[in-house]
Records
---
Amino acid sequence: MKILSVQQMRMADEATITSEKISSLELMERAATKVFDLLHNRLQGTPIPIHVFCGIGNNGGDGLVISRLLEKHGYHVRTYIVNFSDNRSKDFLANYDRLKDVASEWPVQLKSKQDFPTLLDQDIVIDAIFGIGLNRPLVPWVATLIKHINKSKCFTVSVDIPSGLYADKIPDDPESVIYSDVTVTFQLPKLVFFLPQTGIYARDIEIVDIGLNREFLQQSPGIAELIGKNEVLPLYRSRFKYSHKGTYGHSVLVGGSYGKIGSVVLATKAALKTGSGLATAYVPECGYAIVQTAVPEAMVITDDDDELSEIDLDFKPSAVGIGIGLGTNEKTIKALSNFLKNNTSPIVIDADGINILAKHPKLLENLTTQTIITPHPKELERLIGRWKDDFDKLNKTIEFSKRHDCIVVIKGANSITVYKDQLYINNTGNPGMATAGSGDVLTGIITGLLSQGYSPLHAAVFGVYLHGSAGDEAAHQTGFEAVVAGDIVANIGTAFLELFKQRSIPDKKSS
Ligand SMILES: NC(=O)C1=CN([C@@H]2O[C@H](COP(=O)(O)OP(=O)(O)OC[C@H]3O[C@@H](n4cnc5c(N)ncnc54)[C@H](OP(=O)(O)O)[C@@H]3O)[C@@H](O)[C@H]2O)[C@@H](O)CC1
Ligand SMILES: Nc1ncnc2c1ncn2[C@@H]1O[C@H](COP(=O)(O)OP(=O)(O)O)[C@@H](O)[C@H]1O
Ligand SMILES: [K+]
């Protein structure tokens, strides 16, 4: 699913209004009705007090439509107008008039702190103060109103975007943004919902289709792509009946040091479980018995040291995953450096491999095109330097990717794969995956996909998706806390099966 910029969203609005020959007021009615339907569906007429806070722009206009529909359906509604400006939008005013016809109570005008209502814990708040039109810092009393709403324990539903959150930059004051329980967003998700600094405000997202012009949406380049099942299914390459293990490539996992051989075990298992035809672990001598015992399906090549001092292969691997548990001593740096100079196989670099690149940036010149680098935030910082905020982080990563023609997977809750200007935001995974060795499994999965002939970009995007999906399955079985990296490996198969699962249709009652 595409993610558009604010300007592109506004253009999509216009394109819809023109092509359908409808007014913006009708589009507002359509959008807000979708929010009402969702609420009504969940509340089923429950007489809970609902406080609808409306700004004076089109987000506020949506709020007024929602208030009117709630009133019509007998809900206990109180509407507030947050008068942060006299510049009321045309569609806000039209809906203001329409609300007055049905409202049992006149909307309450808020102009300062003295006007704030008391909110009880069990009440519901609809947040329609600011939408994607927020373009400057809040005046102090509106910031205080947002804090007042946050302080209450009301269940808060934000319309389109939590108020106080810019769609395209981080907030001026992190405390002056609505922490919404559910954000009902129009047509497409917003980039800020998936960044660590801003995703915290939109805990749960519901995307409602408001019928924006399909042609425009398809043609619009977007600023990022949200990766879900629909996006990865076309990437999947099926296996042929007359294939053999050679068809699916030979993965080589290079890494490990004394006390860190487990990382290579996890990655090697993951490569095999992802479908690599053959897998070889290249480890120091101390890892020999461990890998042979833990992964009998794999072959092992050793270096006669406790840390790798040479990486010498007498065959060309289909794919290489390198850096896991590697250590960063001088002889290992030399070994990696020599290896990268001569390597022409598709490659994933992780962990200490990244740390070595960060310390010796000259090595970046020797990377094969579209090398995949999979840093966690600390490793990324070593690689690209400090960033001001999450947007700066993305820009610096884009810059790095362009400069070195590499694919960078920024790992985290929503891992983001960056290739030049393109951002792919992953939507699988869970906090149970914040556990030792989880990243080693990802390296193995991506290597396994590369070995089967997936292009580097597809291997990265699909691999990150599968990894998260396997983690979701693991968490489903054990709960977040008990997930260990081995459970993610064990569920890679289920993650593949899940791709082809049809949604179950409820059984028809037998007559
Ligand atoms: N896109 C879609 O598909 C559809 C969109 N729809 C809805 O429209 C929403 C966007 O509406 P919007 O453009 O009227 O802006 P909104 O967020 O209501 O802000 C109001 C105005 O406030 C101003 N302002 C900004 N910052 C300020 C500040 N700090 N303090 C004071 N004032 C400030 C600024 O105006 P300015 O003063 O700069 O002229 C701004 O325009 C969108 O999120 C969705 O809910 C649907 O109805 C239909 C389908
Ligand atoms: N809260 C989270 N939600 C989803 N995925 C997560 C979360 N925390 C970590 N992960 C995933 O787990 C992996 C952790 O990688 P990494 O930090 O390199 O672990 P390790 O070095 O222990 O192998 C990444 O793929 C990351 O995206
Ligand atoms: K809002």
---
Amino acid sequence: MSGFGELKAVLRIRPFRRLWAVLGLSSLGDWLGLLAASTFAAAQVDNSAAQGVAFGSVIAVRLLPALVLGPVAGVFADRFDRRLTMVVCDLIRFLFFASMPAAALIVDDSTLVIAWAAVATFIIETTAMIWTPAKEAAVPNLLPRARLETANQLTLATTYGITPVLAGLVLIGLEKLVVVIFGGGDVRPQGVEPSEVALWFNSLTFLATAITVFFGIKEISGRRTAAVERKPGMLKEFTQGWAFVSRTPLVRGLVLGIFGAFAGGGVVVGTAKFYAVSLSAGDAGFALLFATLFLGLGVGIAAGPKIVGALSRRRWFGLSIVLAAGSVLILALATHLVVAVAGALLVGVGAGMAFLSGTTLLGGEVADDMRGRAFAFVQMGTRVVLMLTISLSSVIVGAGGSRHLNLGFKEFEVSSTRPLLAIAGIFGVIAGIVALRQMDDKKGVPFFADVLGSIRGRPLSPDEPKAAQGIFIVFEGGEGAGKSTQVRHLAEALRGLGRDVVVTREPGATPLGERIRSLVLDPPEVTGEVVTPRAEALLYAADRAHHVASVVRPALARGAVVISDRYVDSSLAYQGAGRTLPVDEVSWLSKWATGGLKPDLVVLLDLEPAVGLARAGRRGDADRLESESLAFHERVRYAFLDLASADPSRYLVLDASLPADSLATGVLQRVRHLMPADEEFDIAEILEDVAETVTALTGDELTDELPSGGTRV
Ligand SMILES: Nc1ncnc2c1ncn2[C@@H]1O[C@H](COP(=O)(O)OP(=O)(O)O)[C@@H](O)[C@H]1O
Ligand SMILES: Cc1cn([C@H]2C[C@H](O)[C@@H](COP(=O)(O)OP(=O)(O)O)O2)c(=O)[nH]c1=O
């Protein structure tokens, strides 16, 4: 479960708290009703065959309304006042639950009593089909969006965890109570059989919820009163609902995923008995598999949000379906009970997480006026899919038995449950992937990196669109590697070609950046204190964010060539490798700051730190980073080289001890490939111009400043 504090926070919201109490009560009623109505019907007859028929017909009658009424139930929830809809439904259920034991009191003929029980159950179920979407659609209106997930955790845990157990206990308690008060079976008066008492009790729970909703949760009413007059006819609303589900990618993806999960679940349930046999695990194995499946469900619902952290809920949903279905494949292949138990646990975890994220997405992202129909659609579909897959798969498995498989070197006994589970698993995985594609809200962001990042609290965000025309070139390297010199070279060459060139740098290309630059680079004697590593990383990131947004992107957008002296790699090398902050964190920070803007080309000027520092030293006072140890600069150098080798197509690595003009040639040659074909240029000619310009600009005959070891090309 989410933190206790979060639970308390949702329960502090009064209308939700009351609705939760109502839900707990009516769900207790539902479970009691399910148990009691069927045992009640069975108790009316003696022989076991007739008992079976009675039991079965009550169950069937509970599923039928889903087929008949499911499609229109949502129209009620969207069209009429949801509070009144809920109240009327509860009153109907109150009356019809009471009518079952009442009928037994009045009528003597047990066939009639059973028939009435079936009719009453049918009506009760029909009502539930209308009540549930109204309730589901109302919940998101009672809560802030951020609390919806926790609220759903609480609701699901109540409906599927607490109340079924409680219902069982209540039934046992009633049984004992009846015996204590009225004595054993033969001497009891009519109408107080335990199942009858349960039905009376059940009837009262619905009266209680009707009263609470009517008087206590007025907030459920009172939405968009103005829109009501403009409502189209019911039939129109119904077709609109279908159209909405089939045309909205999010809802289509959700529906597909949920149905896939339920189909997989249905096959697992339908084949479970035979599956346990195929593991030679018997009844105890069967029970164990079921128990772990439910345990997994609980874990998925309770711990899911904590585990996936900040992951996009849409992605989480798709991932959960794939996890559940993939684990069905584990079940299909498991030859040992331990493996099967692990598989069942994972099926449960995946299904529980899918259930939670699916409900939350549906509640949070479907607009209020469509929500009832969307929930009704899912409610109907899941019941139908579940019923079909459970019955079909148990029939198929029952008929299929097991086959003897001879592979020549080894022989196997393959139960027909295995291929069936495998098919269900594959089908589910495909459904999950398709669902994910339909509704992915982070297209283009690598999936697994995002999942891992999110689990660690640092989700990746989709890149902001990059302007198509401009070219972004970055120079990287250690101190004194010659970046500024090469930037000037390249800029002049491209300007000579008539290109719009923007020369910039990090840190400090903007007025804000200037101030950040002095905060981060001025020596401690000036600033009065040493910048701590994380603060340093954040300051560079802040400079970068501002720089990209106010200088780089606008220039690229108008088609300019942007040449920057340093960019993201400097942070990875200096703050990551140099300061030894975790590189993935620094990388995430930069990605966030830049909106994912990557350079088209990074020119890495690689140089021995000692040589570079000597060159830089000639420029005067060393800044904070220049005065770091040689080991620091060694780490920085190798970090740059690692980055380049990880993505060679984007990098040009040059030996910076070469003369400046030959480096410039190399750079130009590479940059040429980035230009549109019609702008290809004659290198020799431009280089001559460039050499002249640079000499004129700097006054340096650069090529004469060759350090020893440098060679002319
Ligand atoms: N290829 C080169 N060979 C020798 N000296 C160079 C070369 N490129 C630049 N220099 C000199 O090295 C010093 C630092 O160059 P600069 O371009 O400012 O490096 P950075 O911007 O990487 O710190 C300058 O005095 C510059 O003239
Ligand atoms: C952009 C950036 C620079 N730096 C450091 C590297 C440099 O030592 C310093 C300033 O860079 P720069 O202005 O390029 O200095 P120089 O001309 O001496 O190479 O900032 C980082 O540590 N992280 C970063 O993200």
